[in-house]
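Worked example (supplementary).
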Amino acid sequence: MGRETGTSSTPRSRTERQRARNRGKLVSAAAELLATAGPEGLTVTAVTERADLGTGTFYNYFQTREEITAAVVHDALESLGARLDLLTEPMTDPAEINSCAMRHMVTSAVGDPLWGWLLVRLGIGQQELRNTIGPLHRRDVRKGVEAGRFSIPDATVATAIYFGGLLATIQAQLSGDGSDNPDSVFAEYMLRAFGLSDEEAHEIAFRPLPPLPELPD
Amino acid sequence: MGRETGTSSTPRSRTERQRARNRGKLVSAAAELLATAGPEGLTVTAVTERADLGTGTFYNYFQTREEITAAVVHDALESLGARLDLLTEPMTDPAEINSCAMRHMVTSAVGDPLWGWLLVRLGIGQQELRNTIGPLHRRDVRKGVEAGRFSIPDATVATAIYFGGLLATIQAQLSGDGSDNPDSVFAEYMLRAFGLSDEEAHEIAFRPLPPLPELPD
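After joint prediction of all chains, the assembly is encoded as:
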């Protein structure tokens, strides 16, 4: 969030650098508008004004408001997902992997309210958000089932509870209805829901949380 | 949903009946617009056109779009809440009370897609929705804690997981990403999260669900 993310490969020519810069400005501006005013505040004029670019520039990069919204979600989650993978890669217990991933989702949103409000204002109906967070979660949960750590009666509802519960927990926290250690408590409930005993869920969810590593250049 | 709800007391004079009828038409029209087009589709013109009333009529009853949205949520949940109370009043086990309430929230939304989409499109950020469903849930959960049936590390996060998870489960179901018995599976996960064993959570959540009683006139 706030970073002017461009394309993932390094642009070579001056024109390509310029394009990546403009796209980054538009995506950053859209992210700020979505976080502060919600989807209703996202107009092409508002985006280009905030990005200090001409209105027509928008259409060199995106065709619709939905398209730039998807780009905002994609850019933000791509980096977060990669950092989470890097963090949990050496871990062997799927319960700990899930706990760390869930806790960092909560702490990143609570620690960066612009990112948190963006998630909340996009909401459970936003397709790109659901289609990015959902499969990541299912993959981690599947590991837990295969390792015999989790008992999951239904994967769709498990993901829905995680996804909706995550956004609502962030919403409560950002609205001042705060909890101590919301990340740990959230993970504790979810690990219970996945079939761990109360004691083990608590112990795993309240371990010291290793910080997210930076991505290598 | 769809009923032309008026005020709770019986209006006496012809003018009062007319007022209740108009208000009911406006609230029904707003509910349909919210369910089909979401908050962005709710304009004063769209509401009055759908209700077949003059634009000015709107302002005899509501000052803002937020006010009529709150009325939609209030009217719909007031009746559902009262019917749930009537159903669960004779029950003694808070786990069963919670299970029935959670399951009827899911089945009512899945069985009446207009009501379901309304809940989903209003979303976790809608204050009236949160302020109505949240306290009802907390009250039921508190009974479970007092009876020693539930172990709740944090009431705010428990409610957030229930509220957000409920809306996301309804969203998944209405979008065709359906589960068998989504109501039972949802209740099963939540009862586990509240500290019940996997076996007991399953047994309670898969009992036959008694139908919602009609309210006495």
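Two points are worth noting when inspecting this output. Chain A has two domains: 14-65, 91-205. The interface with chain B takes residues 38-40, 120-121, 123-125, 151, 153-154, 156-169, 171-172, 177-180, 182, 185-186, 188-190, 192-193, 195, 198, 202 of chain A (CB under 8 Å).
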